[in-house]
């Protein structure tokens, strides 16, 4: 049975949503293309695209959005890696690859931890981590995009 919010369904929805946004789609288009996802899940996908879209646009405190990301993410690392997220922001192609593959990989790592704690399947934990988890980072990321 196809479950758009779990496992393979989550990654397919994520990648389809990103592809739609990259081809000029809007948040409203996500609603039409991904009707099984909640508004919050579609917003999560759109926010990742928004960071790439705003990349070279003027920013009120840093010249452009990329500079603001570099400054803000220099003290934030992927858990367990020590890798500052600002490293990803130096080049747009690296950031693009991170959004396409790094975010799902990080979500999978979070899903494995959740799954090992019990109470959920790995597929459900992955779907939640990729599309619906709302850690502080999600709200901070949304705030960055809105402020820009």
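^ Assign residues to that structure.
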């Amino acid at each position: 049975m196809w479950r758009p919010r779990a496992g393979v369904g989550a990654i397919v929805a994520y990648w389809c949503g990103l592809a739609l946004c990259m081809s000029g789609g809007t948040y409203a288009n996500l609603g039409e293309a991904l009707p099984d996802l909640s508004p919050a899940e579609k917003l999560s996908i759109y926010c990742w695209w928004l960071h790439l879209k705003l990349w070279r646009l003027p920013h009120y405190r840093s010249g452009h959005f990329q500079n603001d990301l570099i400054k803000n993410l220099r003290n934030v690392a992927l858990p367990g890696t020590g890798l500052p997220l600002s490293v990803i922001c130096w080049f747009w192609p690296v950031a693009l690859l991170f959004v396409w593959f790094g975010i799902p990989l990080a979500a999978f790592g979070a899903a494995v931890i959740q799954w090992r704690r019990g109470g959920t399947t790995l597929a459900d934990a992955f779907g939640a981590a990729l599309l619906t988890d709302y850690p502080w980072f999600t709200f901070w990321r949304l705030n960055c995009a809105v402020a820009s």
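The chain has seven helices and two strands.
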